[in-house]
Amino acid sequence: MKAKRLSVIGAPLGVSIVGAWLSARWLGPGRELTMAVSGAAQTSSELLLRPSMLSFHGELEISPDTLIQAASAEPVFSWTAQTPTGAISIPFSPYGVSRSGVEFHHYWQRAGELEDVSDISDFSLPLALENAGRPFNLKEMGQLPVQFGLRLDQARYADIMLQFAKQAGAKITDDTNQETEADFVIECVVDVESAAWRGSRIGLSAPDDLSGAESQVFANAARRACALIGDLSDQPAERAEFNRLSENEADRIADMRTLLVAEDLQHSASPELLRKIDVFRACGRIPTEDFEVFLSPEWLAALRARGVQPRRYDRMADRLPEAELLSWLTQLRRQIEQITSAGNPS
Amino acid sequence: MSGIDSEGTVNRVVIVGGGTAGWMTAAGLASMLGPTGLDITLIESEAIGVVGVGEATLPHLKQFNDTIGVNEAEFMAATSATFKLGIEFVNWGRKGDSYIHPFGEFGLPNEGVAFHHYWRKFADRPDVGPLDEYSLPVIACRNGKFQPPSEDPRSVFSTYRYAYQFDALQYGPFMRSLSEKRGVKRIEGKVTDVALDAESGHITSLTLDDGQEIEGDLFVDCTGFFGLLIEKTLQTGYDDWSEWLPADRAVAMPCESAGPPVPYTRATAHEAGWSWRIPLQHRTGNGHVYSSQFLDDDAAAETLIAGLDGKPLADPRFLRFVTGKRKKLWNRNVVAIGLSGGFLEPLESTSIYLIQEGITKLLELFPRSHDNAVEEREYNHWMDLQFERVRDFLLLHYNATERDDSDFWNHMRTMNVPDSLRERLSLFDAHGHVSAYEHGLFLVPSWIAVLIGQRAMPGGYDARVDRIPDEQVLQHLAGLKGHMAKAAGSMGDHTGFLTSHAGMGRTV
């Protein structure tokens, strides 16, 4: 029986991520996977891997330690975004600590109505760690109550993933005409359009204007494609599902982009983003859609950075007595200072 | 400032109606917002009966109980409750069929591929057996076993959750007692008049049959199908979904227990609907949901009585309903929770879940002032999504069937289903993939349980299964099946657990 041939072509980052996943999770008896990279990876550029990429690599049995050693990776706790008023830091983990099911920023807002309290960013352990000015090793990271991503060299990372795929049985080539011999082609580009599956071809596009989003989008698309392309025959139902999920993902990323950069938010926002803005402004809650890319603390940071402030906090935050609330905030700041300055996260 | 005590703020909640929805709402608000000074009043009349909705529940109720500090053993003893690991569906795919929708997983995923794909490849082999045999809660149900799940994710005993089956007529008083201890004021009386603010259209006060006037800032309508505030007063409107779910009647009748209570609810399909059987500690709850287009009341009652396990304990009690939901469950300063907000037949025990979801969302969005248009819109958006996704899942049971033995089933099997469901069915039909969502009640294992349980066997399976040699997969299936059976065998007896942990056999 003729082997099913799948080609992954295009930009190095996308090909390496998608190909690595497919080599581990799709390649097998009667199947061939060819990866053709067009152009070189940006040798001097840094790449941010969001926290969820750690589980992606974990499933491939590529440890953070491997990436740290082979691609000079460093743990990161936040990412930087540009807004019309300047750069902002967006943490991967929540500000403060939620309590009795109520997120920290409600308590912080209440405290601010009682007395002067410092900016909410002063209660962010991830931002404090980011600014600590010292490296954190993996052992320390494991003890910290924060999520972390990795910042690494893009070209070296792509190389690690390509080598992984090669060892798993994929054929690596620089012949970009591979697609003519394939039963199915996945083309990876860096763009802001959403991915689309048409006929026997999937065009994957990932944005490069939001730090960390491009690798995440390629990884998500790899999982999705791997689950749905099956034996590479035309599958209308699976195609529709792939395109639905991809469009949703692109829409959520577009929402974050709009929130960060739009001059006129009210007139630029999608209904889903307007929902976030309106509900946050009304009561400090951030509603989510199915399968968000960005985490709640990231939306919170972006909303606040764009001047969207809640008119009120959650009434459930009033259950905490005033004195206890203020004392708790003081303790939180002290703990953050201890963690970041002592070099001992315990 | 927090503004709680400022003029124009929401500080007085009036709940109208004291059934399950009313007292759950009172308990939820009193527990979570009572300490903030919220004043909560519940008006009910002993002259008005309660529907006693939903004796069977979903695992989410445990979370609600835990959040508001309900002691499980006390709650179970007070409501004659039993544990529930799933729902058995009889006669749904074909007459004579039986499957269980468990509160848990089937098998274990392997290499990122869901278990049912591996099973599907070899489902025709006699040694592989039905999917049920790879679910610990299903095996436990079939054997009358129960033990609380493990919190260790490596344990097979962590692959399920549990719910309760309780006496709804005892549940209201239990929640009332808890609520009153937490400061809820109960007023006996019937609402005879509702006053509206001429400008805003908000309700300002209620007049009771004894002349008392009760003022409030926010009103929760728990008056059941009647919808005194949300519909009779505010004329909110109703989305009628009987086009898709045409059952519009139910007849209920408790009976004596025929044996030890089993840890599952049973839903048996009939000529024009289905009947429930809910085993409690002291009796069995029964009812027959049917469509009056296809079956008259007498025939429905006969079917119910013919299927009772034990001696009837009451006369048949008939209910009428229209499946659907209010166009807005939050309208101005009225929030409809329970049957006043909408009704979906209790095929998957969703009634109390929808009450719970309504309370939880109200707590999250609880308004400070009457300027709450955004909170209202968000609440309605969320509850619409919940209702619609439950509706599709219920409709699945009627549509994914081979039954052609009555006009009712022919109608249900061939109807045009909503696009949201049609697309799901197409995707599953091809290679067994389930279109996932996050914000809904029924997740992937539930869809698999019903689809495969009702013979909607997919045409194929995830092609990644073929990467693993057949012998290896078969060995894995055999090992897993044996492991599940052994684990179920080691579980304790459901009745024994009820006796030791839930007050069964003791006089309450």
UniProtKB/TrEMBL annotation, chain B:
Signal peptide: none
MF annotations from Gene Ontology: monooxygenase activity
InterPro entries the UniProt entry points to: Flavin-dep_Halogenase_NPB (IPR050816), Flavin_halogenase (IPR006905), Trp_halogen (IPR033856)
Record's protein name: Tryptophan 7-halogenase
Source species: Erythrobacter crassostreae
